[in-house]
Specification:
Radius of gyration: 21 Å
Strand content: under 5%
Number of helices: 14
Length: about 270
């Protein structure tokens, strides 16, 4: 019986599920812990802007501590890993590990994380957007960036994620009873933001890619496109967005809740 099971596992067409050890290796290869640290830092910084917009001059240390807890890197990592691993658990991780533990994949993962941190600075982000605008529309590099973005549905998925995060924030506000908004009000207000969010998202995504992949050769970037178009690459993309959506949905709702509490004077 054991021999039969082993033989079946090796037959073409039989699914090979990712093991916990393989998923751990993939997280390391993708540097997801470093990415969570960046998202944490970015979220805490943005929470200060939220305070200034919603209840300027108030909140004090209580708000800072609350936002730091909600956006803690460990918490974000837990949310991300759970959703990512669940989405990828039925996928054969071997092709992904072969790529990301190889020379080109490891380089790309490092460039992406480095670029994600650098682009937090407004001047770097502006330069990245300008660099994309300066690309020749008929160049091979432009074609590769467009193909990669289309294969991974980067613009639409990021727009959807942003709209869902905004809706979750409104629901959090409403749950605190500090803001009187019906579900229809929330949906209408969020949907009115779609065009602006889409335009900004496209500019950010293509600026980021232009900046992150600047030092890659067209052949290396083409290898990345080929990987993204594979079954394993598509599964990875779905898992990444599942992880990010889990973070921003939960965090946005909680930020809405605590914003409502602080807006009416309750300092946690």
């Amino acid at each position: 019986m054991l021999r039969l099971l082993a033989a079946l596992a090796l037959m073409p067409g039989v699914a090979v599920a990712a093991t916990p050890a393989e998923l751990a290796r993939l997280h390391e290869a993708l540097s997801t812990e470093a990415l969570m640290a960046i998202l944490s830092e970015e979220g805490i910084e943005q929470s200060e802007d939220l305070r200034d917009a919603m209840f300027p001059g108030r909140g004090g240390a209580g708000w800072t501590a609350t936002a730091a807890h909600i956006y803690s890197a460990a918490r974000l990592s837990g949310l991300f890993r759970q959703a990512f691993d669940e989405a990828l658990q039925d996928t054969d991780a071997a092709p992904l590990l072969d790529f990301y533990e190889g020379e080109t994949g490891a380089l790309i993962a490092r460039l992406e994380v480095d670029a994600r941190r650098a682009i937090m600075a407004e001047d770097v982000e502006a330069a990245a957007r300008n660099a994309f605008d300066a690309l020749d529309p008929s160049s091979p590099r432009m074609a590769l960036l467009e193909e990669f973005a289309e294969l991974n549905d980067l613009v639409d998925r990021n727009v959807t994620g942003a709209l869902n995060a905004n809706l979750a924030f409104y629901r959090g506000l409403s749950s605190g009873e500090a803001f009187d908004m019906t579900e229809d009000d929330m949906l209408r207000d969020v949907w009115e933001q779609e065009t602006e969010i889409r335009e900004d998202t496209r500019a950010w995504v293509f600026g980021y890619m232009t900046f992150a992949y600047e030092t890659l050769t067209d052949d290396q970037l083409n290898d990345y496109v080929v990987m993204a178009d594979s079954p394993a690459g598509r599964a990875l993309n779905r898992a990444l967005f599942a992880g990010f959506d889990a973070i921003f949905r939960d965090v946005s709702y909680e930020m809405g809740q605590v914003t409502a509490q602080f807006s009416v004077g309750d300092e946690l």
